[in-house]
């Protein structure tokens, strides 16, 4: 089960990273706009680090997208 969860988290992290790049934002710009630490955002988007729902909502709002744009 852990491997499946890890794969899902990495896929969400990759999607966040892809959307950030599409919107021509740096990691720092997105972190500032989402009001989260740059290091935390970096871990989420590159390693699929676990995150809270509140953090995900902040990222979605900062990217100006819908939840289904990120959650696969």
Fold blueprint:
Layout: H1 2-22, H2 27-34, H3 38-47, H4 53-63, H5 67-70
Helix pairs in contact: 1-3, 2-3, 2-4
Verbal overview:
- This protein has 72 residues and is mainly alpha-helical.
- The protein is built from five helices and no strands.
- The longest helix has 21 residues.
- The radius of gyration is 11 Å and the shape is globular.
- The chain starts with a helix and ends with a helix.
Structure summarized in a few sentences:
This protein has 5 helices and no strands.
Distinctive features:
single chain; 72 residues; mainly alpha; 5 helices; 75% helix
Number of strands: 0
Instruction: List segments where confidence is low: pLDDT < 50 over at least 5 consecutive residues.
Output: none
Average the pLDDT over all residues and give the rounded result: 92
Gap between N and C termini, in Å? 17 Å
Question: Element order, helices and strands?
Answer: HHHHH
- Helix segment count? 5
């Amino acid at each position: 089960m852990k491997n499946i969860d890890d794969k899902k988290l990495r896929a969400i992290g990759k999607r966040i990273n892809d959307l950030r790049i599409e919107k021509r934002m740096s990691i720092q710009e997105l972190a500032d706009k989402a009001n989260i630490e740059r290091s935390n955002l970096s871990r989420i988007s590159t390693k699929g680090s676990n995150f809270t729902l509140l953090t995900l909502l902040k990222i979605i709002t900062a990217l100006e997208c819908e939840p289904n744009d990120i959650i696969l």
